[in-house]
Amino acid sequence: MSQSPVPLPPGSVPAHAPVWSADAAARWSRAGGAPWARPLWSAAALVVTLVWANVATPDRPCTDAAPCGAHWLGFAESALAVGLVCWLARLPELTLVTAPPLAVLVGWLELPGPGTTATVADVSVLVALVFCWAAAVERLTARRRQRRPAEHAARVRHPSPAPAVPLRRGRTPITAGLLLLGAAVFAVVQGVGGTVADRHHAHRAERITARVLGHGEESVRLRAGDGRLLTLSASSPGGYRRGSTVTVLEDGTWRRLLAEPYDASGRQLLGLATGLPGGSMLLTGLLARRRAAALRGVPVPVLRVLERADEHGRTWVHATDDSAGRTPVFSARFAKDKPGPDGPGMPAGGAGTTEEGPSIMDTRLHEAVMFGSPYEGGELVLATTDRHARPILIRTTGPVRPLRAGHGPALAAEVTPGAAARAADAQAVPSADGAPTPLVPSVIPRRWGPGILARVAGLLLALCSVTGMTFIVHSFITDGIGWRIFLVPLLVASSGSAAQLLNWRVLADVSGLWLTGAWRVRHVPWDRMRGARCADGEGVAIAMADGSTWRLSSPGVPRLERRLNSRLSYVRMVEEITVLHARPELRPTQPVAPRDRGLPLGPALLALSALAIAVWVFA
Description:
13 helices, globular, nine-stranded antiparallel β-sheet
């Protein structure tokens, strides 16, 4: 990969446009939010305290003196709590507005708690909410701080380039958000209507006393005082002891237990599942559209920068004196403003299809002119060049994200003729002690898999996942669907991570690579592979010539393995695959037998969870 940035054509740079030096970029980075304001810490504090408060607060049984029923203030409290966990990362503006009402609801509905532990847990939720609100204030203040050094470095303003197409930014999330909010409103209206109708019936109903004869899965069998046998639905039928007496409300053919009014939890969950993403998407689209519209045809700060697109289609912006591309300042997703040979909306530097076949993504550094003030969550316009050195205009399709520790451009180890020649000279990969180990030709296929520490971690994670899903489903059956339903996607995702830690496998044969992940096996021919790379926090990525990427996000436990001076198996795998890709004569000469191509373990873990649930429930 060339270290010399692709230059802009003459006349593409506005007059007197200054460069963004490394010192100015460093001042911009230092003006960012404080480390304690990162969404990770506030979200973790809120989740931990919410879980503690829910565990510490015992479930209140349904009785005639304290009926259950639809609790709409509690529903609003749950909706704000779940939404706030999501909004902390992407929408600090919404966090600033919703954290105070949630704190008021927690203080009004939950304090004082039923015990000392519950009270302390609820107070900890209030403390976490204050922390979340302060973090949101710091992040929004940091955005204003970041504008100042960028505008000071620019010194002058220039009109941004006139758009070639109508403003599309935010159209999709706004449309989807409105549709989801419509579904949420419908669900809430249905739930409120059912609650109102139930109260009208209860107001007119006659009260009769009945004795409990038994109960089913979702009902109780009763004998009324006049000898009639009744079967009524109940959310927790196990809570009614056989032989006890209950009160029944009867209004013609309508009847129910006094302790169990209309249950609107299904409508509430539907409103929660559609309203939260709908509101988030709507606000995200509106903010993005407003910020993008502010850049169209008005004077804005202008700076000369360097930019580069990575394998994931993300564009990274560098200072102009960072010609080696070692220290990006921030990143965002961009798309072409004007339809070109690659088609409308193609990412800058992205792969397209030509008459000669699939083209390769251009990950070289390019000179560019940045229009607008960069800040976290902002919108920008870049005047740059495509992979054919033709001038193009690209606009953000996603918000600006500052550089975080441990993150950087996803640049695969591209196998160029020069790299192949170097591999031909080396023909070796480093061993555990740093000495080169020859990679000799092999007849049988080569295989790589997880180390012993990764398997132990995967086994522990699988046990936690199976136990957690069994417990949650059992609680659904005994206590009804509650807040624990939101843990199900997390446990399913942890099953995938456990399957990868236990059983990821990569096999190399004469035809290519057989890649076994958590859920499926993929075959990549040698001539369609572009390169492989690994990085802390990102796992392994194998890039294809068509622009797609196979990722292994949980290949091991790198920190623990390094502390124990253990050679990371997936690092060795990437090094050896790179050499095999560059040297066809070193590849195995035999194909992999169908039965040895790998078996994804994710479906097996889900089946094991289903078996454990069946044994616990029906045993």
